[in-house]
Amino acid sequence: xxxxxxxxxxxxxxxxxxxxxxxxxxxxxxxxxxxxxxxxxxxxxxxxxxxxxxxxxxxxxxxxxxxxxxxxxxxxxx
Length: 78
Hints:
By secondary structure, the protein is of the alpha+beta class.
């Protein structure tokens, strides 16, 4: 587990859990938002009213794009 740096005083923190070799050469990364609500981390929209805190320590959209950019269709197993 790696704690991500606090980039904003928003009442949240983020943990990154790496599982490099989970099964049969596959792996995954799990991000745990502590203190966050039902919001999209890093979103510029302020929709947190009634939904809880929004973490600004992680941009979930950027994390997803970076993840998918690490693979190509030719490597995919169908």
